[in-house]
TrEMBL record:
Family, per entry: Belongs to the GST superfamily.
Organism: Magallana gigas (Pacific oyster)
Protein name according to UniProt: S-crystallin SL11
GO biological process entries: glutathione metabolic process
PROSITE patterns referenced in this protein's UniProt entry, alphabetically: GST_CTER, GST_NTER
Length: 201
């Protein structure tokens, strides 16, 4: 079995969905979190000079999207066939479209513009995103299980992680019923529930 080392900062950010995927898979991994001063020393040695980065034995994999897909494929969290894998990809793409709006707020320096972007996120972008996810969920056996097939996948983990992280900085609208049920199922999934209890806030 390969040795896995996930490298990032001491925050959730783009690494948390990968950590959660390892947790759901029951796969041990080294969770290396760089202090900023140590990162500046290590940065020149990293591919693309950015984090997160996953080391699999001696091989380094950059790019958060590539890493989360690699882990999901490796441990059966990417659907059981091409149709299901494509469905996971559709949800990832939907999430990435939404995240552009959330990330723009983080990098906006002008406080007035930041407030306007946050208001638009809370009043328009989040409800639209939740409505899209609700419709996608309903396509899979009425929306009372997981996003893809009959078991948890990267799609479910990603949706939970986004709502968790965005909810820490913005006011979330009420979840539509199917999406709310999914969020509860993911956070109460035994391995995730145990991880969250240890992680705390």
């Amino acid at each position: 079995m390969p040795a896995y080392k996930l490298m990032y900062f001491d925050t959730k950010g783009r690494a948390e969905v990968i950590r959660l995927a390892f947790v759901v898979a029951g796969q041990s991994f080294e969770d290396k979190r760089f202090p900023m001063e140590e990162w500046q020393t290590v940065k020149p040695t990293m591919p693309q000079k950015q984090l997160p980065c996953l080391q699999v034995d001696g091989r380094l994999i950059p790019q958060s999207g590539a890493i989360m897909r690699y882990v999901a494929r490796e441990f059966g969290l990417y659907g059981d066939n091409n149709d299901e894998s494509t469905r996971v990809d559709v949800i990832i793409g939907t999430a990435e479209d939404f995240l552009k709006s959330a990330i723009a707020i983080h990098y906006e320096k002008d406080e007035t513009k930041k407030a306007e972007l946050k208001k638009d996120l809370e009043e328009n972008k989040l409800p639209q995103f939740f409505s899209l996810l609700e419709d996608i969920l309903k396509e899979n056996d009425g929306g009372d299980g997981f996003c893809v097939g009959e078991k948890i996948s990267l799609a479910d983990i990603l949706i939970y992680d986004i709502t968790d992280q965005v909810g820490a900085t913005a006011k979330l609208p009420a979840f539509p019923p199917k999406l709310g049920g999914l969020i509860d199922r993911v956070k109460n999934y035994p391995k995730i529930k145990e991880y969250l209890a240890k992680r705390g806030k």
